[in-house]
Design brief:
The chain is α+β, with helices and mostly antiparallel strands and 301 residues long. It has one domain. The protein is 17% helix and 33% strand. The chain is built from seven helices and 16 strands.
């Protein structure tokens, strides 16, 4: 026996199911999923910032005998963002912060927890290290004085420290207007972004490194490099024990970085002086989940 249905009944049923979101293909047009979890964004320093760098022959040692210690290390960071290549939904935290990375809390600075987000892989993540302005916020133990220092200088990073070798000490206090955006962040194994577990929480960790101005190349992927610090000592033209920004600007890159040791291609700006080299390396500081990379970089005003 065949059962027939009137066209009016079919139309009415279709309208009802559609309004309830029960028809195949219906749902949130952003691509959001029913399974939810949280994503917590926090900023952490690489160990080279609180721990310094040792002189030696190890893979992460300074190869030319100089040991490095930091006495202060501030960054401007913010505009955290995430998206999915398979959907249109996005996450965003537009605030900018000045953070004291030398005295960061155990586990880093918690910036934002995105709650009840789709439990999928968010394969596009990025953030900025902008040149600081007076509107930047702070998180303890970062002080208002720290924020003012960066804002007054228009810097994205400021650090103080010293290199030591066989009783010789050279100090430095460098502020750099190296505002840069970092995108397409991936884990160390190359997996892009982060995965939010259903009913759980993903840890999303922009990581700031403290050794890039010792690299013998400008990295854009895995940090396959050696570390040298001799150029800092060589730049101290007046031999007063402090290497200044002006002295870095006066030292030609060809004299500071021998071609047999360095490959300076790949910077976002030309490298003609030692200062240009430090600035170029500051534009690579933003890493992800420890040693993962954010290879898409653009200069910010």
């Amino acid at each position: 026996m065949r059962f027939g249905y009137s066209s009016n009944l079919i139309a009415t049923t279709t309208l009802l199911l559609s309004s309830l979101g029960l028809l195949a293909g219906c749902g949130d047009d952003t691509g959001a999923t029913a399974d939810k979890g949280d994503a917590q964004v926090f900023v952490e320093p690489e160990e080279t910032i609180p721990g310094g760098l040792a002189a030696g022959t190890g893979e992460e040692d300074v190869q030319d005998g100089w040991a490095v210690t930091y006495d202060r290390f501030l960054v401007s960071i913010g505009n955290f963002r995430a998206a999915r290549s398979d959907a249109t939904e996005t996450l965003a935290e537009p605030e900018t912060y000045v953070l004291d990375l030398l005295h960061a809390p155990a586990g880093g600075y918690v910036i934002k927890t995105f709650e009840d987000v789709s439990a999928v892989r968010w394969d596009r993540f990025g953030f900025d290290l902008p040149n600081a302005t007076a509107s930047a916020k702070t998180l303890a133990p970062t002080t208002a004085e720290d924020a003012k220092l960066l804002a007054d200088g228009g810097w994205s990073v400021y650090f103080e420290g010293k290199i030591e070798k066989e009783g010789v000490v050279k100090t430095f206090k460098w502020g750099l207007p190296a505002g840069t955006s970092f995108d397409d962040c991936a884990n160390e194994d190359g997996t892009p972004g982060f995965a939010v577990p259903s009913g759980g929480s993903a840890q999303v960790k922009p990581t700031i490194h403290g050794d890039h101005w010792f690299f013998n190349n400008v990295t854009a992927g895995a940090e396959v490099t050696k570390r040298y610090a001799q150029y800092i000592a060589d730049a101290d033209a007046d031999a007063d024990g402090e290497t200044t920004i002006d002295e870095l600007k006066a030292l030609k890159a060809a004299d500071a970085f021998p071609a047999a040791q360095y490959n300076l291609a790949g910077g976002l700006t030309p490298i003609e002086t030692a200062y240009d080299y430090v600035l170029a390396q500051a534009r690579t500081l933003g890493d992800f989940q420890g040693d993962g990379e954010c290879p898409t970089r653009k200069i910010l005003p």
